[in-house]
Amino acid sequence: MSSNDPKPQTDAGHFFSADIRVGRILEVDEFPEARKPAYKIKADFGPVGVLQTSAQVTGYRIDELKDRLVIGVVNLGAKRIAGFTSEFLILGSYDGDGRVHLLSPESVAAPGDVIG
């Protein structure tokens, strides 16, 4: 199965158990310790708080990411990546060349808004 192939059907409960929210990127730093090119990103998710993640979104310049609204899954638990604790999953799509395009809410959205 390639990454473009449809995934098998799943129970809607699996999807609805994910806490998906709007976040605003506060900080972006290089992450040279990561195996694949990545950034360390801190984002404000309103009442959830400020969380950090490692993201392979180096197709964006750091200044393009700062203050950007993004969509993140905030309840997947922490994961260690090259000694760094990643606390949320930033969502994006992959184009045919494997480049990531971040999902973004409308400009009227606010950090912490729930995606449903």
Essential attributes:
2 helices, single chain, mainly beta, 116 residues, OB fold (Dihydrolipoamide Acetyltransferase, E2P), two-stranded antiparallel ribbon, 8% helix, five-stranded antiparallel beta sheet
Low-confidence stretches: none
CATH architecture: Beta Barrel
Instruction: Provide the spatial order of strands within the biggest beta sheet.
Output: 3-2-1-4-7
Helix content: under 10%
**What kind of sheet is the major sheet?**
5 strands, antiparallel
Tally of alpha and pi helices:
2
The CATH H-level homologous superfamily: Nucleic acid-binding proteins
Stated plainly, the CATH topology is called OB fold (Dihydrolipoamide Acetyltransferase, E2P)
Average predicted confidence as pLDDT: 94
Coarse shape: globular
> Gap between N and C termini, in Å?
28 Å
Structural classification? mainly beta
CATH class: Mainly Beta
- Would you count the extended β strands for me? 9
Report the sheet-strand fraction.
Answer: 35-45%
The run of helices and strands is HEEEHEEEEEE
Rg, alpha carbons: 14 Å
Domain TRNA-binding: 14-116
Keywords: RNA-binding, tRNA-binding
Protein name: Molecular chaperone
Organism: Kitasatospora phosalacinea
List the SSEs and their pairings.
Layout: H1 12-16, E1 20-30, E2 39-44, E3 50-55, H2 62-65, E4 69-73, E5 79-81, E6 84-86, E7 89-90, E8 92-94, E9 100-102
Antiparallel strand pairs: 1-2, 1-4, 2-3, 4-7, 5-6, 8-9
